[in-house]
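Workshop exercise sheet. Pairs work together: one partner reads the sequence aloud, the other fills in the structure field after running the prediction. Swap roles for the next sheet.
Pair: D.N. / O.F.
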Amino acid sequence: MAHTFEIATSARAKCRGCDTKIEKGTLRFGERAPNAFGEGEMTLWFHPLCAAYKRPEPLLEALRAETVPVGAVARDAVPEADELEAVAEQGIAHRRLPRVAGADRAPTGRARCRSCRELIEKGSWRIGLVYFEEYRFQPSGFIHAGCAADYLGTVDLLDRVRHFGKELTEADCRDLKAALQAGL
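Structure field:
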């Protein structure tokens, strides 16, 4: 089972990381896995950057592969391969970092932080988390933005949060950055 980069032949596949359509003719990353519903294997499709953020190990395997499957794209043809590799290595260095699924302000004061176990106050910044189980990303709670350093091992996650939280404004990003820095 070799993970692969290839050009999308249609626009039917959705990215497992961001849940948006992968357009025809664009580069996509395919993580090969045993078929959970029968014989053979299946392919989980991702945008390359989404895979670097959410599935760093399989992405690095594909980038560092000596041989490329038939019909696949070699590393030389992967745009920004070095940047993808750097993002994936950061996810491996900080084992909880691939769980980040965006950020928002808490709409209520009922959720508990997975790091400090305290309630997340209504209106404060929180980081959403997911786990990859049974070939899907499952929601798994939140952490205070200020707890990111302790829980994730880094506060260098604004690009990641922006990628998965496309509705964030520049003002939101400045506020979130301040909330992340407050935990240091």
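Discussion prompt: Helices lie at 48-54, 56-63, 81-93, 148-152, 158-164, 170-182. What would you look at next?
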